[in-house]
Amino acid sequence: MRLPGRYSGTARPIVTYGGDPVLHRPCAPVTDFGKDLRRLVLDMFASMEAADGVGLAANQIGVDARVFVIDCPDARGEDVVGYVVNPELTVLEPHEGEPAEEVTEEGCLSVPGPYAELPRAFRARVDGVDAAGLPVSIEATGMAARCLQHEVDHLDGTVYVDRLPAELRERLLAEAAGPEGELPA
Ligand SMILES: [Zn+2]
């Protein structure tokens, strides 16, 4: 369970589906490892926490940069907490006794409200760098592995509903939009 006020950044508004083109195109690799990047990472943790999310990509707060944060339980219930700059995703072979894939419900802060079942690899790893440009990796299972795949998708301009059949996607987006038929600003 996350503790309130754990992150010292400032929460920024979440971009919703269709609300900003930055959510729907690949993000630019980070090349400047200065204080703006450290501020961005802190603000992303704060934004994720404020929105009660388990992961967040930079373009979900309108920033065109390949950075994501995660605070999500793995298959054993252990929290996977971290961030990666310029992540590369590798889907891993399952260990003995693990499924290759899992089909469970997935949701997104940028499509607030609904969830939909989506197959994802059970075990995955991202390799990238930290805010100082030093190499980091996160390997995870279960929901945390799903989150890694979901966030790297975001940085490639893909929201999870884009992976679903058009009819279902439209239904989920309408559900997220609420009775007014418009996504919240
Ligand atoms: Zn998302």
Description of the molecule:
Strand 4 (101-108) and strand 5 (111-121) form a beta hairpin. The radius of gyration is 16 Å and the shape is globular. It has a single domain (21-177), classed as Peptide Deformylase (Alpha-Beta Complex), CATH 3.90.45.10. The model has no long low-confidence stretch (mean pLDDT 94). The strands form two sheets. The chain has a five-stranded antiparallel beta sheet with strand order 1-2-3-6-7. Strands 4-5 form a two-stranded antiparallel ribbon. The protein has helices at residues 35-50, 142-155, 166-177; strands spanning 55-57, 67-73, 79-91, 101-108, 111-121, 123-129, 135-141. The chain contains three helices and seven strands; from the N terminus they run H-E-E-E-E-E-E-E-H-H. With 185 residues, the protein is an alpha+beta fold. The two termini are 29 Å apart. The structure holds zinc ion. Zinc ion is lined by residues 108-110, 150, 154.
Order of helices and strands: HEEEEEEEHH
Shape: globular
Mean pLDDT: 94
| Rg computed from alpha carbons, rounded to a whole number of angstroms | 16 Å
Poorly predicted residue ranges: none
Q: Give the percentage of residues in beta strands.
A: 25-35%
What fraction, in percent, of the residue positions are helical? 10-25%
CATH topology: Peptide Deformylase
Task: Count structural domains.
Answer: 1
